[in-house]
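Quick one: structure tokens for this chain, please?
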Amino acid sequence: MSIKALIEFASNFLEVDPALEALLEQVAQPRSFAKGEHLFNAGSPCDHLFVMIKGLVRCYYLHEDKEVNLRLLAEPSVVLAYSSYIQRTVSREYIQALEPCEGFWFSRAQMDAAIDAFPPLQRLTTNVAERHFLAMENRLLMIQYKSAEERLRFFLEHTDPAIIERTPAVHIASYLGMTPESLSRTKRQITKSDR
């Protein structure tokens, strides 16, 4: 993976001058994850972040041995177990690649040092916080709906089309709080009623 992809990602949030480019080249570690591989695991502190240039991940936790999806993220995204990262505590969530993922890996220490050396980089962390908040708010709003059809319609209206198209149905069902069979039935109902 070329550092140019990371520079292009960073330029969405701030002006990337030669000094910042050199800094990113020095600290960014290209990294890839295979489909099914975990980027982060519950029970360990999250002290890294992954700038995902290509790929799709799910963030989930275990409830009575059942996997419950909290967030679905497609590129470009900053991927981390956010509450663990900001509180410096053990993570309660897992993050797993649903597709092969490519990007850049940063330790918390590297990111803190980079922000100290180049304060405008703080805008990137602000954007991460904003995106995390919005993703969680969307999920909270969605689960307020009583019917499966309302939840699915909300998901379809407020979710990145790349996530909708590329996420396996079993993971969308978990995110929506329903079984795969219920999701399939609800899709058919929506198709029928929208004709």
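Strands lie at 29-33, 38-40, 48-54, 56-63, 66-74, 77-79, 94-97, 101-107.
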